[in-house]
Design a protein that fits this description.
single chain; Aspartate Aminotransferase, domain 1; 7-stranded mixed sheet; 13 strands; globular
Length: about 400
Amino acid sequence: MTVNQVIEEAGFSPASRISTIGVSEILKIGARAQAMKREGKPVIILGAGEPDFDTPDHVKQAAWDAMQRGETKYTALDGSPALKAAIRDKFARENGVSYELDEITVATGAKQILFNAMMATLNPGDEVVIPMPYWTSYSDIVQICEGKPVLITCDADAGFRLKAEQLEAAITPKTRWVLLNSPSNPSGAAYGAEDYRPLLDVLLKHPHVWLLVDDMYEHIVYDGFEFVTPAQIEPRLKNRTLTVNGVSKAYAMTGWRIGYAGGPRDLIKAMAVVQSQATSCPCSISQAASVAALNGPQDFLKERTASFQRRRDLVVAGLNAIEGLDCRVPEGAFYTYSGCAGMLGKATPSGQRIETDADFCAYLLDHVHVAVVPGSAFGLSPFFRISYATSEAELREALVRIADACAKLV
């Protein structure tokens, strides 16, 4: 038997590092919903974490101008000097945190920033503390990098926020990172200075533990909430904090794929090693556009946030009007994370019993053609996430359909 015959007979076997990891549940639900749409079904998709606004015109113009100037070659490995300077100025202007250019890194989206950081720092068995609910990629990235996610339940009564006593109990000699996201995907919960302070006091007692903060939804906060980032309020932790952000959400630039971070110089160098063997530099045109986004007019951010807040209020009120659902008011981002415990144990009109939040979400998609994401995808059940980054007309129709579907459960 030839080598090729042996391989063919044995079949494909994935590497053990990904053998227990699948494609994001969000992407799978979105793909199924899109397929139903192509079949002519009137599906409303409330699963994607993507603003429905367009990229600002001045940002698109900057990309066009860069192409006309011939800026279509490789840039520096982890970000052009111009973009790093814009990021440095952004951190100083908006967050009161000072970074040198070699303390800043740019990658193909914030997800790659997270991957680079974990790959550059984790040894097999190193632990990363992650509050639940969490963005689906956090845990999977840690596992791919041979680390161990330490998942801490943060329920609705706690505002979906990690408490100091939980953090203290979770830290061991093998803890390498604590990962915090504010405002949060999926819950919309945000940490104010008073929420961060007890957590940072715990970290000050454990100098071997580093902090990664995902500030991607920084500009999307409501009701006068004051955004802060940990390196801003506790400078003593700056030398072991990686502050991650990007242009995707605030500037409606998801497809441009630019994420960035500021952190200690040695960490940034190690992350560059990982990136050099993966993607090399981010897209040159996207970088030029991001310079314009960060340096240009910012007034439209408030207008867009006001629009998101109107939609938030619409969705929260609509969900809480449905018996059996319980939706906390989020401080930021563009998601609601609603409890659906009151729906469990009920039966659909066809007699199928709703046992889990995944069952409930499948029922909404199959019977009323509304696509939402179950809390199980984010580590905390029974909940479901709605992205309200879509039109008010669609949100109103979706709420009518969800209410109708819930009323038919017995």
